[in-house]
């Protein structure tokens, strides 16, 4: 799968990322790093332990990664969960938000794994 096909399947804008990162090689290199990133797993563990301060850090990192790489399908739910955790103790049930992040994260990983 080409980088262009990857972004198209994700419903993301490769041209916007190219404007910032300049080359497809650089984007591909950084995109493949998401396969080794541990923020999602750490987020899940922190939420399980009700450590909302740490959970905020991990979702904020994941949101930043999604923003920098133009991973719109992941960015949108990550932003929502990030805002819910920003002030510590959440005011609403987090499971539906985490489920949205999980689905988007798995979709992105599945697509990136097929990148040439």
What does this protein structure show overall?
This is HPt domain-containing protein. It comes from Roseburia intestinalis L1-82. Residues 41-93 form the HPt domain. InterPro entries: HPT_dom_sf, Sig_transdc_His_kin_Hpt_dom. It holds the Pfam family Hpt. By secondary structure, the chain is mainly α. It has a single domain, classed as Four Helix Bundle (Hemerythrin (Met), subunit A). Helix content is 74%, strand content 0%. It is built from seven helices and no strands. It has helices at 3-10, 14-21, 24-33, 39-48, 52-68, 72-85, 95-113. Helix 4 (39-48) runs antiparallel to helix 5, helix 5 runs antiparallel to helix 6 (72-85) and helix 6 runs antiparallel to helix 7 (95-113). The chain is elongated and about 40 Å long. The termini are close together. The model has no long low-confidence stretch (mean pLDDT 95).
Brief rundown of the structure:
InterPro entries: HPT_dom_sf, Sig_transdc_His_kin_Hpt_dom. This protein is an all-alpha fold. The chain contains seven helices and no strands.
> Nearest-angstrom radius of gyration?
14 Å
Order of SSEs, N→C? Answer: HHHHHHH
**Which blocks of ≥5 consecutive residues have pLDDT under 50?**
none
Quaternary state of the chains: single chain
What's the CATH topology name? Four Helix Bundle (Hemerythrin (Met), subunit A)
The biggest beta sheet is recorded as: none
CATH class, anyone?
Mainly Alpha
Distance between termini? 5 Å
Overall number of domains:
1
């Amino acid at each position: 799968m080409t980088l262009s096909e990857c972004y198209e399947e994700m419903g993301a804008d490769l041209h916007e990322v190219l404007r910032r990162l300049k080359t497809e090689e650089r984007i591909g290199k950084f995109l493949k790093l998401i396969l080794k990133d541990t923020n999602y797993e750490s987020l899940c563990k922190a939420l399980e332990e009700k450590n909302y301060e740490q959970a905020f850090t991990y979702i904020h990192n994941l949101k930043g990664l999604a923003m920098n790489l133009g991973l719109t399908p992941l960015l949108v739910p990550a932003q929502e969960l990030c805002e819910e955790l920003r002030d510590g103790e959440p005011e609403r049930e987090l499971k539906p938000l985490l489920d949205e992040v999980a689905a988007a994260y798995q979709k992105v990983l599945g697509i990136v794994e097929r990148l040439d």
